């Protein structure tokens, strides 16, 4: 199943919208993240998996989870994609509703316990989301 959420990234002072697409399919178990992600974004795999399990939801360990951060030609940095990846993963797994996810900008770092951590630089991203 496929689910999409919305996030954004800052490059200098410019805000770039990012679609977070998660597909859960049959195949060898894996958690792949694609889309020009820097190290902190790639590390979200570990935080997202732990946060989902600590929140009491099953992580689709016996499936192939593919996360695409689009557009692929925009560099993604920071930990702000954690929440968008986690929610899209839960929606793709059928653990939460996905119909209204397109209405929200999801920006937060996740702790291993599933709690949210704030980010720096979200004001321009929130203003950009409001304008869109």
Describe this structure in words.
The protein is of the alpha+beta class and 132 residues long. The longest helix is centred in the middle third of the chain and has 11 residues, at 44-54. β5 and β6 (116-117) form a beta hairpin. A 4-stranded mixed beta sheet has the order 1-2-4-3. A two-stranded antiparallel ribbon has the order 5-6. The protein is built from 4 helices and 6 strands, in the order βββααβαββα. The chain is globular.
Could you give a short description of this structure?
27% of the residues lie in helices and 29% in strands.
Keywords summarizing the entry:
single chain, 132 residues, alpha+beta, four-stranded mixed beta sheet, two-stranded antiparallel ribbon, 6 strands, 27% helix, globular
Describe the secondary structure blueprint for this structure.
Blueprint: E1 2-11, E2 14-25, E3 30-34, H1 39-42, H2 44-54, E4 64-70, H3 82-92, E5 109-110, E6 116-117, H4 122-131
Give the number of DSSP strands: 6
Mean pLDDT equals: 95
Helix-strand sequence: EEEHHEHEEH
Instruction: Kindly provide the radius of gyration, computed on alpha-carbon positions and rounded to a whole number of angstroms.
Output: 14 Å
Biggest beta sheet attributes: 4 strands, mixed
Structural class: alpha+beta
Terminal CA distance reads 27 Å
Shape: globular
Percent of residues in helical segments?
25-40%
Low-confidence stretches: none
Strand order of the largest sheet: 1-2-4-3
Total DSSP helices: 4
Strand content: 25-35%
